[in-house]
TrEMBL record:
This is Sodium/bile acid cotransporter. The chain crosses the membrane at residues 26-44, 56-75, 87-109, 116-138, 215-236. One of its GO terms (cellular component) is plasma membrane. Keywords: Membrane, Transmembrane, Transmembrane helix. InterPro entries: Na+/solute_symporter_sf (IPR038770), Put_Na-Bile_cotransptr (IPR016833). It comes from Triparma columacea.
Length: 316
């Protein structure tokens, strides 16, 4: 992880979107679908089916798409303006309106011993609901209607192609000898997923370091501290809520990751499109660019404690 960040800082043009390596195309069209294919291949169909009907789905989506944006709306009018310039306050608002990550929260849930089926179901569901809820929140938060022509069909098509199709293919492959091949090489599959995640971090920060010239060191540190604090607050809140509801421990872990994460893959293109003509565009996307890899840092740091938590009492 540190190597990825150092490389992005020292050689930002090597792996940004304008690079001849074309990481945006490679990661988007091959890397992300591969993560979902591997996740589905290791997921029993019965477990996925049970998760789709889970009553957990409603509270997870409520926390992610309603409660967190509402709380950030209050903070943006009380606390954030005390120490951040207005454009960055707006960026924090837009960040809170986004749905969860998909590949990252699934990978972190897997590594932490959580219920992968719950993570997969709600990550996909959250992004589908976000197609409608996020532009609505943008309009409310920025006190104006987003006049941009947002292609909901294009967004939905992307989710179907890069998320749902690999998931369906993975379930189909479970019926073939591919399952035995996968089962004997789980460590290699895990390494592949983690490598793709690191490439996403490298690409994200390469873009940030090569374009966000207005982001000073002091502002970067302040934003990083704020976004991490908010992320930890929302993760802890979700953890306590689902624990109080009597949810089993593996589902508490999955639900907490899904509820507290925010997606770069969905959010960055949407913010860029809606606010393409805004002179403060770099400030609007800065919190999202910062929190994306920091979520991975935080999730990785909690891995051992969450694994121990999941194993206590058989994960109940």
């Amino acid at each position: 992880m540190m190597t990825s960040l150092a490389t992005a800082y020292l050689l930002p043009t090597l792996f940004n979107d304008a690079s001849p390596l074309n990481p945006k195309f490679v990661i988007g069209n091959f890397g992300v679908p591969t993560i979902f294919l591997l996740a589905s291949l290791g997921l029993p169909t019965s477990e996925l089916s049970r998760s789709i009907r889970s009553p957990l789905n409603l509270p997870i989506q409520f926390l992610s798409l309603i409660l967190i944006p509402s709380l950030n709306l209050v903070l943006s009018r009380t606390l954030f303006p005390l120490y951040l310039p207005p454009p960055y306050v707006s960026g924090l608002l837009l960040l809170s309106a986004l749905p969860t990550t998909v590949n990252m929260c699934i990978a972190l849930t897997t590594n932490a011993g959580g219920n992968v089926a719950t993570a997969v179901t709600n990550a996909v569901l959250g992004n589908l609901l976000g197609i409608l809820s996020t532009p609505m929140w943008f309009s409310i938060m920025m006190k104006s209607s987003s006049g941009a022509n947002i292609s909901f069909l294009k967004t939905l098509t992307g989710l179907l192609k890069k998320v749902l199709l690999p998931m369906v293919l993975g379930q189909f492959l479970r019926l073939t000898p591919a399952l035995k091949f996968y089962s004997s090489r789980k460590k290699l599959a895990k390494l592949a997923s983690e490598s793709i995640l690191l490439s996403i971090v490298l690409n994200s920060f390469s873009n940030a370091f090569s374009t966000s010239t207005t982001l000073t060191v002091s502002t970067t540190l302040t934003l990083a501290a704020t976004t991490v604090t908010l992320h930890l607050l929302y993760f802890a809140t979700s953890f306590k809520v689902f624990g109080a509801l009597g949810v089993d421990r593996k589902n508490v872990i999955a639900s907490s990751f899904v509820s507290s994460h925010k997606t770069l893959a969905f959010g960055l293109p949407l913010i860029r499109q809606v606010f393409a003509n805004d002179p403060n565009l770099a400030a609007l996307v800065a919190p999202l660019m910062l929190i994306h890899p920091l979520q991975l840092f935080v999730g990785g740091a909690m891995k051992e404690k969450l694994l121990a938590y999941a194993e206590e009492d058989g994960g109940k």
